[in-house]
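can u pls check wat happens w/ adenosine-5'-diphosphate
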Amino acid sequence: MPAQAGIHDQAPRSTLGRRLGGDRAAGGLPSPPMPASDDTLPLDGQRILALAARSMFDLFANASEGMLLVDRDGRVVWINDQYKRFLPALGFERVEDFVGKPVAEVVQNTQMDRVIRTGKPILIDLLANRAGTFVVSRIPLRDEAGEVIGALGIVLFDHPETTLQPLISKFANLQRELDEARRELATQRRTKYTLASFIGSSPAATEVKRQARRAALSSSPVLLLGETGTGKELLAHAIHAGSARARGPLVSVNIAAVPDTLLEAEFFGVAPGAYTGADRKGRDGKFKLADGGTLFLDEIGDMPLSLQPKLLRALQEGEIEPLGSNRLVPFDARVIAATSRDLAQLVREGRFREDLYYRLNVLPIRVPPLRERQADIPALVEALGEDIGLRNGTLPPEVSPQALALLQAQAWRGNIRELRNVLEQAAMRSDSRRIEAAPVQEVLCAAGIEPAAPVQLAPDAGQGAQAHGGPLLRPLAEQVAQLERAAIAAALAASGGNKVAAARLLGISRATLYERLSDIQASV
Ligand SMILES: Nc1ncnc2c1ncn2[C@@H]1O[C@H](COP(=O)(O)OP(=O)(O)O)[C@@H](O)[C@H]1O
Ligand SMILES: [Mg+2]
């Protein structure tokens, strides 16, 4: 139906005039927005202007998808025929229920009241509401004295995705890029490791993996206890990856690495306006970033005492209070904490709150040091070697049996991290792909790493021999015996003193092990 006919059918000048002026008696609109068309007037400038205004109005009425008129109080006073088809989606069946209402109540997200308030048009805007997305134009209407008496809203297009194709596709491209960046970020936050990345089949390693698997099935807090480099962070990733939250983010905070003064904001976020300057807009804390996923609190033993009550409350209530806000915000993150310190001792010393300790210590997992699972060293050496090769773009190094035996005999206070360093440096010192015992020994000496089983040196092979070229320049039989003792001690340590298991680790029979043990005792 042509819009012009629609307008005139629906709101002939007289009706519209009565509506605008009459209904709103006191502050009403004195004249309709549509100029008069009196053929008897002389063709002066005013008439041309009036005609132009009328043509414009008709043009918009004709070409647009709908028009709506509000009075100076922001009430809808008139809509044209085309506009009516939006009413059901806006929640109205009858025109009478819509007209007469404050526009802000019946059209969500409208800006008409702003146009009336400011007197400034909004020539092009996107309006999205229950009825759809529209390109709209809003124009204030003024009386002869220039007073704003109402506003005209024009729906220029609906379905802007078809009419504004180039603009929309540009927008869609930007949106796609944004999504991609977000996905990328999510991937980075996603786990690097699964339980399969935790190398080791020694009884101790198997037990850790069993506990980690069980922890993954639960949603209680996990506490990973172990020396540095034992794989606590790796396990945290693996537990997250094996949990129902695997699709959510894994967010880590290394408490030891963040200055105390910044920790609160780092954990709980900052409310908008809490600070002037850079953080004016507010910032999400790690708890919020981990929403739907897992929060890994590394080095929890370093948590300043002053912040512990707030962390405890967050864990107990599942709510956080961003800095500078007095609102509690719920979060949904599973907490895995780790520490290389003796938490129970810290509690005794009053440096760690006991209530927080119990709150975290729901599923404790003790991650054993490498010296308690020397049987895992060959497999670890192989895996670490592969990784080193991969990073350097070379083939993985080949480690000689002697070098391996030497590695197995060390105390490894830095655990796997330290083992990896030694391997990497020994590989650099080796001319070929093969790593022999000598460069390993050199690196160990340079790093001051002591052997695990205190190896007894023969009296004549003491300082003097070492001063010239190291402990390798000694009779071979003696070195082999020494290595053998170290390997046996290591196997016994790894098996917790169980001789059957130790013999199996060494690949020798139980009888042979007893034989060697009695030899060792005899020689001491
Ligand atoms: N069982 C394991 N198998 C393979 N790599 C390991 C294992 N444990 C630790 N690592 C590696 O050793 C390094 C230190 O481990 P990490 O998890 O950071 O230890 P922690 O958090 O206990 O200090 C990391 O590169 C990690 O991938
Ligand atoms: Mg760590």
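The first helix runs from residue 3 to 10.
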